C-alpha cells in the first residue's frame, strides 16, 4: 500500500505515465510473452493489475485522473485512493490519501511546492485546437511536438528524451512529471509493417516503447526516490464483437492495465 499523503508531504517526485489506448489484455500478453522486459523488471510482483477506467476516451479519463479518480479494481473493496479533492465534511478519507484543497490535482500539488510538467502525446495535449488546450493548460508547463504523436514511429524516444531534459531543470523543487505515451494509440499498424491497427500491432507498439520507458524510470530513480503510476486511460476495440474504437462501454475499452510503486 502506498501512503501518497506521506510521500507528497515529503516532496518525493511523482511520475505519472498514461499509455494511451492500451488494452489490459494486450499489456498482459506482452508481459507474459516477455516482450516488455524493462517494464517487467520494474513493475510490482505479478505485473499489471486489471483495473477499470473512469472514462472511455482520452479527455474524460484524464479529467477524472487529475480530479483524483484513478482506475479502480474490478471488485467491491478498494484500496485507499492515492489522491482526492477535499470532500464534504461528512466523508472520512483514509490518512494514506493525499487530499488537496483545490479543484484538481495539479493545482493542489502546486500549492505544495511541486512543479507540474506535461509531456503530451496525443492531440488532446497538443494545443492545436481549443479542446486540445484543456488538459495541458492545467499544468505549470506543457510540451508537445508532432514527433511526440502516434504517427511518428519513434515517438516514445522523443518523449522520454524531453522528459529527462525537463527533469534535470529546477533542481531541488519537487516535480510532478506527466507523460502521455502515444505509441500505443492508433495508428500503430506500422510496428508490424501494416496499415491496419490490431491488438497485435498495439502489442508491438508497447514492445517498442518498453526500452524507452525503462530508460526513463531507471534514469530518474538512480538519482532520487519517485512515486510512479502507470496506467492506460482506456482501451481500443479492433472488431471485438463488431465494435471498433473507443468511447464505448465495451470490456476491452474499460479494462486497463495499472501499476503503482515507489522506487
UniProtKB/TrEMBL annotation:
What stretch or stretches form a coiled coil here? none
Could you tell me the keywords of this UniProt record?
Hydrolase
Q: Where is the Sulfatase N-terminal domain?
A: 14-250
Bilayer-spanning residue ranges = none
Q: Which domain of life is it from?
A: Bacteria
Q: Is Hydrolase included in the keywords of this UniProt record?
A: yes
Gene Ontology MF term list: hydrolase activity
Instruction: Kindly name one Pfam family recorded for this protein.
Output: Sulfatase
In its keyword annotation, does this UniProt entry include Membrane? no
* Name of the protein in its database record: STM4013/SEN3800 family hydrolase
Natural source organism? Streptomyces asiaticus subsp. ignotus
